[in-house]
């Protein structure tokens, strides 16, 4: 019985992962978005709201997780991250499993996971694509959004696997210097994977 080829998509902050995921989606490839799932889990009626409220009462307001309050709490209480991950990771893994199960007839699906290697999710993938860009372009992209300071950017980077290590562990690497080139490389990769026989 054939099953989909599961391609893990990852890359550090500001590397163009969301843009690349959108290119796969535009090519009619089903994409599971870990960040979007977490947003749903935190929103009104989300499965993570009640357990987070039980563990961190101040992090839930008006029936949904207040991400600013949660962020502040995580900053002040380092061990809180372990407790949060114990709640969120099983729920995201369940969502991912259900997504794969609902797309068994597809030849290719993409799992868009920022912390793919860090969480060991690469083990459920047939191959991993890392998106990358030079460090100065990465920094420029992130800071130009105006949503975080340079110190916050450096803190996030310190928690992510270095780009060089991700590239070394990847099966495929796409440089995201411009959308046109990235789109061409995504198209080529899709064709390449589709031609491969897999069980």
Automatic annotation (TrEMBL):
Molecular function GO labels: dephospho-CoA kinase activity
Pfam families noted in UniProt: CoaE
Listed EC numbers: 2.7.1.24
Compartments, as annotated in UniProt: Cytoplasm
SUPFAM superfamilies: P-loop containing nucleoside triphosphate hydrolases
Main location per the UniProt record: cytoplasm
Transmembrane segments: none
Catalysed conversion reaction: 3'-dephospho-CoA + ATP = ADP + CoA + H(+)
Similarity comment: Belongs to the CoaE family.
Stored PANTHER family: BIFUNCTIONAL COENZYME A SYNTHASE-RELATED (PTHR10695:SF46), DEPHOSPHO-COA KINASE-RELATED (PTHR10695)
Function: Catalyzes the phosphorylation of the 3'-hydroxyl group of dephosphocoenzyme A to form coenzyme A.
Name of the protein described by the UniProt record: Dephospho-CoA kinase
Species name: Thioclava litoralis
Gene field: coaE
């Amino acid at each position: 019985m054939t099953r989909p080829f599961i391609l893990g998509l990852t890359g550090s902050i500001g590397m163009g992962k969301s843009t690349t995921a959108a290119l796969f989606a535009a090519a009619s490839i089903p994409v599971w978005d870990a960040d979007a799932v977490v947003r749903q889990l935190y929103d009104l009626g989300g499965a993570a709201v009640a357990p987070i409220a039980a563990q961190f009462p101040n992090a839930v307001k008006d029936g949904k997780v207040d991400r600013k309050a949660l962020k502040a709490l995580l900053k002040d209480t380092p061990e809180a991250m372990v407790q949060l991950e114990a709640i969120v990771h099983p729920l995201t893994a369940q969502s991912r499993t259900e997504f794969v199960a609902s797309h068994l007839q597809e030849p290719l699906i993409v799992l868009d996971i920022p912390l793919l290697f860090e969480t060991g999710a690469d083990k459920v993938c047939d191959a991993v694509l890392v998106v990358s860009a030079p460090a100065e372009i990465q920094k420029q992209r992130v800071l130009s959004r105006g949503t975080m300071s340079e110190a916050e950017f450096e803190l996030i980077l310190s928690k992510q696997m270095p780009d060089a290590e991700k590239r070394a562990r990847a099966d495929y690497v796409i440089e995201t210097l411009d959308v046109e080139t990235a789109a061409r490389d995504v198209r080529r990769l899709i064709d390449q994977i589709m031609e491969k026989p897999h069980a």
